[in-house]
Specification:
This protein is mostly helical. It has one domain (2-94). The protein has helices at 2-9, 14-24, 32-43, 52-61, 65-71, 79-94. The protein is elongated, with a radius of gyration of 29 Å.
């Protein structure tokens, strides 16, 4: 049924186009949730014959580098595990950094400079 609908309503290279979009999918400026949603949408459009570990690797490879470098420190075997870790990392990265503690003000003397002698 699915093939009949695709043959009738989609171009012959539809599967190729969707697969290429899947392969090139990157997080970019999107949130982790939006990236994950797009990847799931694309993967649901064709029969994905990848193991769970391969899907997790694809998911991680499309993340922003600053998130990737933290996720790969952990053993991740599924997209769900990777997604949960990336959400935590994104939350940590989006926190407003605490301001630096004030530096101690160096003690300065408050003595007035000596007045120059007045000559008349």
């Amino acid at each position: 049924m699915k093939q009949l609908l695709q043959g009738k309503f989609f171009s012959p290279d539809y599967q190729q186009i969707i697969y290429n979009q899947f392969e090139q999918c990157q997080q970019g400026l999107r949130t982790v949730a939006a990236y994950t949603k797009e990847l799931y949408r694309l993967s649901s459009c064709f029969d994905l014959s990848m193991t769970e570990e391969q899907q997790a690797a694809k998911y991680i490879s499309g993340l922003k580098y600053s998130i990737q470098e933290r996720v790969i420190l952990h053993d991740v075997f599924s997209v769900d595990e990777a997604h949960n870790k990336t959400l935590k990392i994104e939350r940590l990265q989006s926190r407003i950094p605490l301001s630096k503690p004030p530096t101690p003000i160096e003690e300065t003397t408050t003595e007035a400079p000596a007045a120059a002698p007045v000559t008349t």
